[in-house]
Amino acid sequence: MNSVQRFYFDHNATTPVAPEVMEALVECLGQVYGNASSIHHFGQAAKQRLEGARRQLASLVHASPVELVFTSGGTESDNLALAGSRPAHIITSAIEHPAVLGTCAQLERQGTAVTVLAVGSGGLVNPDDVRRALRPDTGLVSIMHANNELGVVQPIAEIARVTREAGVPLHSDGVQALGKIPVDVEELGVDLYSMSGHKLYAPKGVGALYVRKGTRLAAIAYGGHHERDRRAGTENVPGIVAFGAAADLAASELAKESARMGALRDRLEKAVLDRISGAGVNGARWNRTPNTSNLYFDGIDGEALVIALDLRGFAVSTGSACSSGAITPSHVLTAIGLSADRARSSLRFSLGRSNTAAQVDALVDALEAAAAHLRRISVHA
Amino acid sequence: MPEQPIAVAMSGGVDSSTVAALLARQGRPIVGMTMQLWNQRRLPELSTEGGVGRCCSLDDVYDARRVAEQVGIPYYVVNFERQFEEQVVKPFVDEYLAGRTPIPCTLCNNYIKFDRFLEMADSVGARQIATGHYARVRFDEASGRYQLLRAVDGSKDQTYFLCGLTQAQLARTLFPLGELTKPEVRELARSMDLAVASKHDSQEICFVPNGDYAAFMDAYLKDTGRDLPKTRGAVVTTDGRELGEHDGVHHFTVGQRKGLGISTGEPLYVISTDAASQRVVVGGNHDLWRGRFFAKRVNWISIAGVTTPVRAQVKIRNKHSGAVSTLYATEDPARVEVVFDEPQRAVTPGQGAVFYDADLVLGGGWIE
Questions:
Q1: Who contacts A309 (Cβ-Cβ below 8 Å, separation ≥6)?
Q2: Co-location of A83 and A104 in the same domain
Q3: Which residue out of A5, A306, A311, A312 would a mutagenesis test of the B interface target, given it has the greatest number of B Cβ atoms within 10 Å?
Q4: How many cross-chain Cβ pairs, A to B, lie less than 8 Å apart?
Q5: Is the pTM of this model over 0.90?
Q6: Reported ipTM
Q7: Do residues A32 and A131 both lie within one domain?
Q8: What whole-number distance in Å separates Cα of residue B160 and Cα of residue B180?
Q9: Please, what is the angle between helix B58-71 and helix B14-25, to 10°?
Q10: Structural domain boundaries enclosing A267
């Protein structure tokens, strides 16, 4: 059983480090060990690499390099954006990542008023709902760009028009969008935008927050004057350099890869819907990140299906990796109106660079066999 | 998958870890799984920092995962918290409130470990399951039945809690430790270098910290928004004299002596409790002895049932040594009258009664 061939369909949880990125990472790790704050040659070399990476990432998201703050990852970026905005009232949505919802819960304990907007069955936030929820003391609106479980892409530009008009800053968690769809912070009109390296083939432990010039943001960790006083702590130069290389890779491959992902995803969904009864797509089928598919298999326990597929060599997930083993069904799937039963029978497939049409076909074969077996033996369904 | 794997229920303890390692050593394909049954952080007021023997803690999952890694088998945590609460915790609480003394381990075996887990095993392609229980199972050609037998290590025998297993469940279950003694299991674990070789045995009921049932019930009912039903009542003697008051029948169990809050000349014991009237009847030690009782919802294992009187040794609680008795059939095949040769102390409604013929488990039911 340990000798099965393994295929990875869980790229929204994390991605492998791309060879090009690995090269940059290892080279930096081996050669560049100075502290980017030091005056000497070694420090300067590190600083140059740091700023080079900042320009690479800035170019990917059409920001100015000075608007980017490197962090330890998406969760820290979300925490910094939300807590650093010190809002008296914050508006967010029911399908945000736990990094945002958890921070909102903490802010609420500290006295912030929190409004959580419902979403429709497609998983979309209605910009008019944002407008209606605005209050004179609203200090921040935080709506994710692409959802991690469904892939649904929110109308951020439209929401930004609403928040701009009201003079309220807009944050968007872009962790699941970066590298999968074009991200242009100017077109989006966001003031704060969270990013994570390991979702686009950089290693874990590095992320960034875009902070539009003029946006008020307080630090949440204190110490040295790193990152323009916004994030104290010696920079993770090799990780950041890898993130920069990954940004370059995404910029050059995005158009081609996203078309390829979309075709593979459609191939997967068509085959599943054709061949497996009681299966369907969760959330809107249009306007999604091209690599993500969330499917339900009525009458089948999603947890059992994930294990059965893993034993056959296919890595997929029930909802997000952050909620693995949770007793309550996915908050995203319940928010779009799925029953608890259907939510528990749902799986997320997220494609990436390594996946091929042959792998997708093999996955569908395994799914069909596992689903048939599960339906045959199921006594509780 | 060429050969169907065996799903091993791994709790992170020495017994189930040894089972996984033993089967792996035999070259059988295995899937290790830990059942997440209860969230220990759910009732924070019951928190016992550093307490030993609590199940489903992150430490236990860590230990199980480490053993799986060491043995080289696929490993998963499966979440049955919902089913465990529905089918074990709620009935446990309801039984206590009804003035009976439930045994959740039997319910857990019947509805979780040998039902939900078996189903999960099936789901992932495993026909058989293996657990670290001390018991033996064998197929008897003559009767065509799967038989359950006491473990070789009588002091660790767990057949009392396994008396609800059906033929279909037994057919798919392996108890690799049934032929071994606990010291042998520890020695095996040590010889295979398992990190858990000297870990403490689990104690008491896994979801009730420190065996404090009353505290658990109070916290659980509060958490689920249920009101504790009227729980003040009278302590009365067998001849009807009122001796005092108490906080609720769920604080008492038949045979209990301490905690009555009443001092009289001779020692007093709880003889019976009645939830409807919230009366706790107390009396002397002699009032606790019974010559017979009825067992209901009997599950027959090694025999198909009784029609004529059958001689058996009957255990009326886990630590009971077993009383020589005769089982008499009633109109209901799942209900028998048990008549002891010698009266027994503290026959407690809600507890299991398990019938043995030497090592063979004939069946078991619930004391009425």
A1: A315, A316, A363, A366, A367, A370
A2: yes
A3: A311
A4: 52
A5: no
A6: 0.82
A7: yes
A8: 18
A9: 20
A10: 7-15+254-377
